Amino acid sequence: MSKLLQLVQIGKRDLALEDDMYRDMLQQTVGQRSAKNLSEWQLSKVLDHMKALGFKPKVSNKPKPRAPEVGKIKAIWITMHKQGFVRNGSDAAIDAYVRRMTTRMNGRGIDRAIWLQSQQAAEVLESLKQWHYRLMSEVIVSKEGRIPANKDCTGPAGYDKLATYYKENYCG
Length: 172
Fold this sequence. Notes:
Elements: H1 3-14, H2 19-30, H3 40-52, H4 69-82, H5 91-106, H6 118-142, H7 159-170
Helix pairs in contact: 1-3, 2-3, 4-6, 6-7
C-alpha cells in the first residue's frame, strides 16, 4: 500500500467520514468511488481535498533506520543504561558508540546508528552483545554466582539466556 493511500485512509478516519460520504467525496474529486486503484496523482488530489476539509497529516521528523538491527542495538543500549553499565542512554551516546565501532571496522566510521547498513549494524550489534555479556558475567561472578549453561549443558549460556538470567536474578 502506498504512503499516499495510507494517508487518504487516515484522513477518512480523522475526518470521521462515513463510507457513503467518503465515496461521494472521491467521486467528486477524482471521478471514482474507491481509492484502491487511484494513481499517485489522483491520491494526491484527494489528499489535498481532505486537507481543505481540515485534515492535518502528522509528519514524522524522525528518520527511520536503514537496517532492522538498529532497533535491537538501541534496545540493548537502553537496557545497559538502566542496568548501570553505561552512563548515558541517549541516541547521541549510541551514535558515539556506533562511530567508534565502525571506525575500527572500516577506518572512517558512521556518524549515526540510523545510517548503518544491515551488515554494519549486525557487526555493531554483535560487538555490543559481547560487551554486555562480559559486563553481566563480571557482575554475576563478583556476586559469587554462576554463569548458566546453554540448553545442551556443553558450555556457557548464549547472550539471550544470560540476559534473561541476569534480569531475573540481578536486577532489582
